Amino acid sequence: MDNTYREIDEAAECDVRLFWRLISRQKNRKTNQISEILHHNRKCKSPEDISNAFADFYADVYTPTENAKFDSDFKAHVTEFVDRTLESCATNNGLLPGGEITLYEIETVVRNLKLRKAPGYDKLQNEHVRYSGSKLHTVILRIFNAVIRFGRIPLCWKHGLLIPLFKGNGKSKQAPENYRPISLLPIIDITSAVYVNEHVSVPFKVRQGVRQGGVLSTILYLVYINDLLNELELVGTANISNIRTSNPSFADDVVCIGTSPQRLQNMLNCAYDYSLKWRFEFNPLKSVILGYRTELDLVFNLGDKSVNISTETKHLGILRTVDLSPSTDIQHSCRKGRNAYFAIAGTGSCLLNPLTVCGLYNKIVIPAVLYGCELWNGIKPKDIRCLETFQHFIVKHIQGFPKRTRSDMCESMTNLERLPILVEKRKLMFLYKLCEMKAQSLTKQIFIYRLFQYFGDTSRKQHGFIPDVTNILSKYSLLNFLNSYMFTGCFPTKLQWKNIVNSAINQHEKHRKEERMRSDNDFTRFLRLSENNGYDFIWQYAKYTGRLRTAKHVAKLWSTPPTSGNCNLCGHFVQDTLYHQITMCTELQTQRHLLYKRLSEMTSDNFLYTLLSKSDEYVSCFLLGNHEEALLDFLTPEHCLDVLNEGFSYLKYCRL
Where does the Reverse transcriptase domain lie (predicted)? Predict the structure, then answer.
């Protein structure tokens, strides 16, 4: 087991793919089995019943609904147009646009096939095609060109598997609607089946919609919904000065911005009319209305159903509230980060070097916590405390430190940056993105307007991204870059700006941290031990030698503040319990003499005499790893590590 975790530590430095493969092996495997589904008030427990229940549910989803209010005349018009198009295609014997496919095109696509992908009905994977050789490539070429010449797609290509994936977020696992159908093959007017618990359901027809994860799905959906967005813009739109803000949309998330209740209702009516024309139905339960500045006691309808009025909702994974405060979103992000961390901890993080675990924390947990942090405007002290409390807990858990260990020590020993600092860095990088956007983009126009509005009326208290980022720039003496941009339109390149931001913030943060530590007696010993080694010296030692258990014990000694009291070993009252146990405690006299004997044998009597002539504090710090130049002159490079190992082995007898 120790060898496995040593391999993970080594792979983290040199082989990223091997590292993630080893991490995946150590994760606690969660079963993907679905034990029970409630469908049409009937409990389904057997694999066959569960898969058929999903098939029945998805068949309804993929079957066009019928509603007496749907526009029959428009349907007849579209049907007639499609029939004419099909008839024209049938009489036209020409090839599809682009002509026949060449062998070079087939080979290029095969080389770029992604590996380790799930197969469909035929159990064939991309590896079979990629490593099959030129003969199969020729067969594939003939098949595709036959499809182009005859204008027909083989029936077997129209079969696919749907894998239900649970959406999470506290939803019921018994409801089929809380599972997202993932298609393993293209699904455009094809026959599908659901694969659950190693059982395939009865097949069903897919008559509408696009498949989840398809390359063309996004484009097809945008073409389908584009007319609705155009109509919403004509019906009613909000303005910022003379800038029309339209209705922001991303995939199937559409935001309707109404400056008055009547305008908002007009847009809802427009969306409902569009749905009747194109024969689909909205789900009002998945829509919500937020009222900013004023409480809404009105009723908004989407067709004949009302839409809920709320004080908060999630949009693109970011929690938006009517008071525009980021506090709730920050608390939610910290809870999400804690869950993500303990998912990592399931890999056996206590047996990994803390620097390796911190690497996982930076790559997995931090992005989850700071997602959308550029929009955390007006952060309050309580929000900063929430972020810091979250990271302090994590960093102590990673290193196995007690809860009352000083947080500055814990973060320093793992080289982790404070979360509020990372938020500021991300906001400044977001500023770069805004400055480099094209002038005709809507986002850039709003940014420029808000920027000049802020500096043009400094007497009025303003909120939002511009005041926040201006305060951050002033804090780190970087405001001149924004002033220069306003007058010249020039801004540093991405790499230049990143280096400028990191240099200014890191220097400022380092200075503040050193000031905090030097003004507090709890850090006296910690600062002395790290002055010749660096804060992460102990974990670097563990990575080099593999002695993680010894390093963890020494790290706890490093992080223990100087305290007076009765020694846990001999019972005497002393001024500094750690220094006393290392150099004076009678209970450790035998172990101490053995240590001095081994040091004398591996070095020289002159070295030991020089060491013991120093103060107890000096000797203690030396054995704790702070090797100063005066004594290093007596040691050869190969002896330095041996002396360090002997000192750390002796320290295991210390008990604070």
Answer: 195-290
Q: Which string of DSSP letters, residue by residue, matches 405-432?
A: S-HHHHHHHHTPPPHHHHHHHHHHHHHH
Decide: helix, strand or coil at residue 580: helix
Q: In the chain, where are the structural domains located?
A: 97-116+125-150, 218-310, 424-509, 526-651
The torsion angles phi and psi of 160, rounded to 5 degrees, stand at -150, 165
The predicted model scores a pTM of 0.82
Higher per-residue confidence, 308 vs 635:
308
pLDDT of 14 higher than 60? no
Higher pLDDT, 345 or 523: 523
Alpha-carbon separation of residue 605 from 266, 421, 608, 639 (angstroms): 93, 50, 5, 14
CA distances from 64 to 56, 60, 70, 79, 172 (A): 14, 8, 12, 14, 26
* 8 A C-beta contact, residue 630 and residue 532: no
Q: Residue 528 belongs to what H/E stretch?
A: helix 524-530
pLDDT single digits (tens) 544-589: 888 999 999 999 999 999 999 999 999 999 999 999 999 999 999 9
Torsion of CA 560, 562, 564, 569, to 10 degrees: 50
Q: Which two tokens stand for residue 48?
A: 């066959």
Residue with tokens 């992005």: 367
Angle between helices 548-558 and 537-545 (to 10 degrees): 170
What mean pLDDT comes out for the span 221-235?
88
Q: CA 78 → CA 81, 187, 277, 433, distances in Å?
A: 5, 22, 11, 43
What pLDDT score does 480 carry?
A: 95
Predicted confidence (pLDDT) per residue in 615-632, tens digit: 999 999 999 998 877 676
Q: Extract the tokens encoding 299.
A: 């009723």
- One-letter amino acid at 157 equals W
